[in-house]
Design a protein that fits this description.
The complex is a heterodimer.
Chain A: H1 2-34, E1 38-48, E2 56-65, E3 69-76, E4 80-85, E5 88-95, E6 98-101, H2 107-121, E7 131-136, E8 142-147, E9 157-162, E10 169-175, E11 181-191
Antiparallel strand pairs in A: 1-2, 1-11, 2-3, 3-4, 4-5, 5-6, 7-8, 8-9, 9-10, 10-11
Chain B: H1 2-20, E1 31-32, H2 35-43, E2 50-59, E3 65-75, E4 80-86, E5 92-99, E6 102-108, H3 115-129, E7 138-141, E8 147-152, E9 158-163, E10 169-174, E11 180-191, E12 194-202, E13 208-218
Antiparallel strand pairs in B: 1-7, 2-3, 2-13, 3-4, 4-5, 5-6, 7-8, 8-9, 9-10, 10-11, 11-12, 12-13
Classes of the chains: A alpha+beta, B alpha+beta.
């Protein structure tokens, strides 16, 4: 019994200190995001559908500026853009040589997603009304978002992989019920570049 | 006077070509088709299992337009189609299955959840990627060598397939009055029987236009 106690005390201490360490890492990750004023990045999105043998690839770019401006733009294969400035969110698609406002198709879901992405860039993971968050020390370090009731019909979980540079998101993995997945890899990320305000206003 | 006559004949020829698509095939003079022409009537559609990704640009009533991605997996031997419509971000708006047992809607987000819309959508997919069931009622060639095949539906509707010498293809769907209600233009190059570019114009019951660009095909 004494021997058991002798071995278990260091294990408990190391577990407690690991938890304290990860709490610290989690706090410093959120703290680093507080220094972010703006972000400019390119992304490669791979959509994996069970019926497709090859993933569906899309490329685009993202611009973010505090307090709440975001431009999430797809350059190919479909050209489209979601613009957020404050509470106003607009969606456009490029067709027949011009930008046209998006009228239909899951506009509300897309609004919800853009609001979430905007929070991720600011490290405000715990402010989401639709996802519970968990910091996983890894490796690899990641933030696990699990949906609350209602959204779980569409999304099983989201994993956000922060990069080595403070405040940078390297990859996002989204898992859906039924085996579909989406992977978004960010590259050429610039932190705190100067961004003209019209980027968030005009397509 | 002779120049006027030539001009008149030329104009008449052009008008004839313009209206050719509107004249029911039953009234078009066809030279009898060979058994080889009959085989090629169905060979213009994909043969064997395939999967494709299309960029879809749609214009519906009132000038409302949207751009989507269309993913389809087909098995012509089983007359089975599995189709998805996705937003540019990858959200699934619609998932439908068409098989020997009929149509099943697996997932549909508004406005794709209305039975009329879902049914119409799967009908379009079927018309683009599967040959009409059975053997054509008529087939042959027009005077300029365009290959034509005609299928008669049980409801009095007719599907016509036209293939010009330059390989551009056209599918016409006529109602029981012989009026064209859907017109599909298919442009090459053709990969495994799938056109690189498709334009569908529907006139009845509601007008709409679909432009589809082939992005990915397997195998």
């Amino acid at each position: 019994m004494k021997r058991f106690l002798f071995f278990s005390i260091p294990i408990i201490i190391s577990l407690l200190s690991a938890e304290a360490g990860s709490d610290q890492e989690w706090a410093s990750l959120k703290e680093a995001a507080k220094n972010i004023r703006s972000v400019k990045s390119e992304f490669l999105q791979k959509r994996i559908l069970p019926i497709l043998t090859k993933p569906l690839r899309s490329e685009g770019r993202v611009f973010f500026q505090t307090p709440g401006s975001l431009r999430w733009e797809y350059l190919n294969p479909l050209r489209s853009v979601m613009l957020q400035k404050g509470d106003t969110i607009r969606l456009y698609h490029f067709s027949e040589g011009e930008w046209k406002p998006e009228m239909t198709q899951a506009v509300e879901v897309r609004r919800m997603v853009i609001a979430e992405i905007s929070r991720w860039f600011q490290g405000r993971f715990d402010e989401s009304k639709i996802f519970k968050n968990l910091y996983v020390p890894g490796p690899p370090v990641r933030i696990l978002l699990t949906p609350k009731e209602g959204v779980d019909k569409f999304i099983r979980r989201i994993e956000i992989f922060p990069g080595t540079r403070p405040g940078v998101i390297e990859r996002v993995e989204i898992e859906e019920p039924g085996g579909s997945r989406t992977s978004i890899e960010f590259r050429k990320t610039e932190i705190n570049p100067n961004l003209p305000s019209e980027i968030f206003e005009k397509p | 006077m002779i120049r006027r006559k030539i001009l008149f004949i030329g104009l008449l020829g052009s008008l004839f070509q313009i209206f050719l698509g509107c004249v029911p095939l039953t009234k078009t003079i066809l030279s009898p088709g060979s058994p080889e022409d009959l085989t090629t009537c169905t060979n213009v559609f994909p043969v064997g299992p395939w999967e494709s990704v299309h960029k879809i640009e749609a214009v519906i009533t009132g000038g409302v337009s949207f751009s989507l991605l269309g993913v389809t997996r087909g098995d012509p031997n089983k007359r089975r189609l599995h189709s998805f419509l996705l937003t540019p971000e990858g959200f699934i708006l619609f998932e439908g299955l068409l098989g020997e047992d009929g149509m099943t809607i697996q997932k549909a987000v508004s406005p794709f959840d209305s039975p009329a819309f879902a049914g119409g959508l799967m009908e379009d997919v079927k018309g683009l990627f599967l040959p009409p069931p059975g053997k054509p009622a008529r087939w042959g060639r027009t005077a300029d060598g365009t290959r034509v095949c005609l299928w008669e539906g049980p409801d009095g509707f007719e599907t016509e397939f036209w293939e010009a010498k330059d390989q551009d293809r056209q599918i016409l769907l006529r109602d029981d009055l012989g009026e064209v209600i859907k017109e599909v233009s298919l442009k090459g190059p053709f990969v495994n029987g799938l056109a690189s570019y498709i334009e569908l114009r529907a006139s009845k019951p509601l007008p709409y236009k679909l432009k589809m660009t082939l992005l990915q095909i397997s195998p």
